[in-house]
Amino acid sequence: MTSFEEAETEETVTCLHMTFYHPYQDDKMVFRCLNFCKREQVRADEMAKFGRDSSACHYKLMDTRVSRIQFSLQFYRKLNSSEFCFEIKNMSKKTKLMVDQTELGYLNKIDLPWRCIICFGDYQILAEIQEGESMDYFETHLHLAEAPILQERYLPSLQPVPENCISSSSFPSQGKSPTEMDENE
Known about the structure:
mainly beta; 3 helices; seven-stranded mixed sheet; Tumour Suppressor Smad4; single chain; five-stranded mixed sheet; 12 strands
């Protein structure tokens, strides 16, 4: 057998792509300590922490309004499954963390959807998970957004308007059972 045939099979690696936006990035350079456009490996047994404390966080945000540890991400494998996931936990006592439409208070945690927007303060982060097979580590790939992420993702929904121009939202009691009222009320 040749060395090519004896070589170990290459595993794909789960990669968490994160696109960061802050309205004052150009003035305050809040992301100056983040390593953009280069994949970084993180051991599976380590937590990826984001915040302003350089001794506790690998991903530092240079802003005094950011908590010492703002949030953490834990890589894990679902029970009885080969699927890998991330769990996000709010580590800030002062600032709520929004993951899409879910608000997380201090020490609240949820599974990170495969594509979502994380918000706190003026920060917007688009997180996208690229699946892989490696159990030893995952990778992060950070990007910088030029425009607000929320404007790109959440466009106003266009709901059809009936021909008579009366929308169902005009009738708040619709869908509720009728109630009997006294004519004097």
